[in-house]
Structure formats: C-alpha cells, structure tokens
C-alpha cells in the first residue's frame, strides 16, 4: 500500500526540484525527506528517483506516480473536507494568502464578514505573489489564496490546484493615451519574476516594442507616486487606481486582471475554505461601488 504522505513528498519533489527545497517547505530535515522517499520506492517496488551525486531526478516511473498522486491526494482532501463538515461550523486557524492589492482592498471587508459569521475561525493572512501560491498550498502552508491572472500571461497554478473566479477588473495606463504612445518613455514595472512584470513586458511587446524599464516597484501606491513625479509610465489595475494622486491621468485599456480563489483540489468544500470564499464574494459588492477618475 502506498503511503499518501510519502506521495505528497514525491509530488513536492517534482514541483520544487530538490530534496532540500522539499524539506524546507514541509519543515522536515533533508535526511527525513530522503528516508521517506526511499521507503516509498520500496512500497512501489520500482525505482522512483535517479541519484547522481547530490542531484535527484524522477525516473519515468516516478513521473507516472506523480501523475496518479494528484487524483489520490484530491480524494483525500475531499474526505477531509467531508469529515470537517460533520463537526459543525468552521473553527480554528484559516491560513489565507493574498497579493497586496487584494489584501488591502478586498480582505478587510471580507474578514469582517467572515469573522462576524464564524467567530470560531481565526483567519491568518500572508502576502504572497500568485506565482508562489501553488507551492504554498501544496505544502500546506496556506488553506486558500487570492491570486490574479493577466492577459498575455499564462496561469501559474499547477495540476494540484483548483480555482474559483471572483471578479475581473480593467487595467489602466498612466499619463499616456495608449501603450504605443509610451514607446519612448521610461517604464515602472514590478520585480522580474512577478506576474505583473510579465504582463507589462508582454503588453509592450504586443504593441511592437521592448519597454525601457527604469524602476522595479511592487507597491502600486508607490508606482503611482513615481508616475506623478514624472519617473515613468506604468500599467495599474483598477483596485490600485481608485484615488490616483495629482499629476496622474489614467486611460482604460482593453486589458484585464482576473482575481480568483485558489485551493488544493478536493479542498474547496471544506467548511472553513467555503466560508472564506463566500466572504470574498460578498465583499465584491463593496468593490463594485469604487470609482476611478480616468480618460475613456
């Protein structure tokens, strides 16, 4: 019989690439992870790993087992969710990940509604880039997360993660009527490796040029302050542009950012996760009342 806990470690190895990275994610020692994976190989009866010095890669059998592990672990998540539902209302810690603008605008009203309806819940929020969410959910560091997807950028969630759409928002360009008009400007983007940065670069490439990036800034309030100071142009989502500072004009573009709730497959019906997603949906009515000063 294959041990699901060991299957989880094998899937984490496929996702993270090294035993040390798996150990850090699941708070084991590297030696303990290695021992568990060796035990899984014995249970499977075939080699799952190829070891070359300090490098470990999955064999074809290992990759096949990872593919099957998604369905196995999903069913176990469903079982855990069903058992939790028999215990009554949701209680205890609920670990929520969110990107900064959602944490600032969406989560305060959502958490007010969530804890009001379920006082036994203890929400704990951590800011995280959507690109890191699959790994955090897979390792059990988060129970549910708010992520975003952009035009021009493929989704970053993997096969172990399920999502539920929440809302879509327009993107805006600062101080220029269109992206092609910003061809010769300096640009303000987020850090390389973030979805926001990839979106800005690819939107410019779709307009026929490579942007000249001067500043890398993740906080959209700071981005807008830099734009107001004449330090460059930027793309900002509606949530970040409800009150632009003096000196910043906003032009709505035919680009969008979509916000979704993400959770491990099979875990979406867990009472605490479902309560959080319900609170997110209810908080959307607050967001719909927001207005933006923008040229059309």
From TrEMBL:
GO cellular component: protein-DNA complex
PROSITE patterns for this protein: HTH_LYSR
Annotated CDD domains: HTH_ARSR, PBP2_LTTR_like_6
One Pfam family hit: LysR_substrate
Ranges annotated as spanning the membrane: none
InterPro entries for the chain: ArsR-like_HTH, LysR_HTH_N, LysR_subst-bd, WH-like_DNA-bd_sf, WH_DNA-bd_sf
Record Gene3D superfamilies: Periplasmic binding protein-like II, Winged helix-like DNA-binding domain superfamily/Winged helix DNA-binding domain
Keyword line: DNA-binding, Transcription, Transcription regulation
Keyword DNA-binding: yes
GO molecular function (one): DNA-binding transcription factor activity
The HTH lysR-type domain, residue ranges: 2-59
Family that this chain belongs to: Belongs to the LysR transcriptional regulatory family.
PANTHER family: LYSR SUBSTRATE-BINDING, TRANSCRIPTIONAL DUAL REGULATOR HCAR-RELATED
Identification of the protein by name: LysR family transcriptional regulator
């Amino acid at each position: 019989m294959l041990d699901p806990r060991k299957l989880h470690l094998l899937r984490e190895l496929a996702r993270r690439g090294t035993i040390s990275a798996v150990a850090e994610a699941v708070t084991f020692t590297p030696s303990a992870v290695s021992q568990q994976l060796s035990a899984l190989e014995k249970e499977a009866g075939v080699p799952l790993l190829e070891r070359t010095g300090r490098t470990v890669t999955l064999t074809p059998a290992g990759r096949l087992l990872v593919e099957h592990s998604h369905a196995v672990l999903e069913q176990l998540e469903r079982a855990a969710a069903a058992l939790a539902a028999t215990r009554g209302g949701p209680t205890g810690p609920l670990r929520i990940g969110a990107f900064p603008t959602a944490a600032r605008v969406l989560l305060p009203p959502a958490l007010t509604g969530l804890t009001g309806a379920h006082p036994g819940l203890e929400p704990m929020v951590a800011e995280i880039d959507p690109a890191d969410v699959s790994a955090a959910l897979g390792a059990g560091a988060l129970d549910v997360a708010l992520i975003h997807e952009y035009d021009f950028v493929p989704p970053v969630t993997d096969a172990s993660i399920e999502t539920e759409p929440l809302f879509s928002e327009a993107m805006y360009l600062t101080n220029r009527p269109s992206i092609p008009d910003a061809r010769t400007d300096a640009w303000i983007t987020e850090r390389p490796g973030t979805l926001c940065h990839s979106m800005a670069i690819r939107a410019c490439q779709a307009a026929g040029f490579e942007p000249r990036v001067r500043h890398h800034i993740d906080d959209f309030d700071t981005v807008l302050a830099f734009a107001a100071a004449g330090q460059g142009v930027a793309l900002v989502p509606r949530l970040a542009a409800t009150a632009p500072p003096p000196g910043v004009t906003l032009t709505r573009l035919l680009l969008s950012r979509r916000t979704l709730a993400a959770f491990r497959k099979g875990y979406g019906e867990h009472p605490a996760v479902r309560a959080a997603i319900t609170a997110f949906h209810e908080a959307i009515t607050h967001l719909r009342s927001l207005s933006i000063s923008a040229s059309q």
